[in-house]
């Protein structure tokens, strides 16, 4: 969770009124008036008593009073108080749980398809912008590689890291190389690269194979050295997937085109969105950033609910971006369950 700010003291009635106001505003997107609050929730107290509590909550910075309305709306601090002290856990439906269980099976077979599916499912269930960051492959530990001949001048390198996460890369060679020689070079590389972090291999491959490079008549070792950035680097791998742009456009907060444009700018900038989610999530804990708590100007009027997930020793992240007027209990449950399903995969296949 986010670092908890200093909250004002509230008596039981003020806490109750604040909770009802936030719940109603989340549902209706319109300022909440005392009369409607009393009628809707049968509070058993007069509208005047509710107005008094509203005035106190506004004075303490938890509510705001739009000039054109007699009702109140929550402030960022009001939402934070609600999230940290009033919010109750909710559970997904059986149908939603079953959909996420199917996602876990997809992830076990193909991590990239699992990541794409997770973004689509999370967007559909939340009606918000969903983002899933793929694990950073370069942080994985080398397990093995296999060389497969595709043609007389092209090889496929099948590279596996400790989590079982697999990447395939094709490289060009000058002449056809026999199966026996491919197996021999694979054996040498598997022995020498075992236990090394993938990103370190990209930096040190020339040093690692220096003593055998000249002895290799096929030139394959030289090709590996020259192609190290292609084989062991992840700069060409799409790291994030998203869904729900069409859903978030329907939220009344984004009727303002400048607000909607900010969301579009965010998802068009991979560096920004990866930075946003990876920096906010640690050890699968749920992170909630509300409005002004977000560092990025693109989403100063939004909230972000995110969590990390782990595939072996490498980590990805999953998150939702939406208006501060979001259904926090449900969004937390969705992000939590998606991150758990993504973490359940034990064997993964193709990363291209």
Q: What do you see in this structure?
A:
The structure is a single chain. This protein has 3 domains: 75 residues, Orthogonal Bundle (Arc Repressor Mutant, subunit A), CATH 1.10.10.10; 148 residues, Beta-Lactamase (2-Layer Sandwich); 95 residues, Enolase-like, domain 1 (2-Layer Sandwich). It has 15 helices and 10 strands. Helix 1 packs across helix 4 and helix 2 packs across helix 3. The longest helix has 17 residues. The two termini are 34 Å apart. The C terminus is likely disordered.
Please give a handful of descriptors for the protein shown.
alpha+beta; three-stranded antiparallel sheet; Enolase-like, domain 1; 47% helix; Arc Repressor Mutant, subunit A; disordered C terminus; 3 domains; 352 residues; single chain; five-stranded antiparallel sheet; Beta-Lactamase
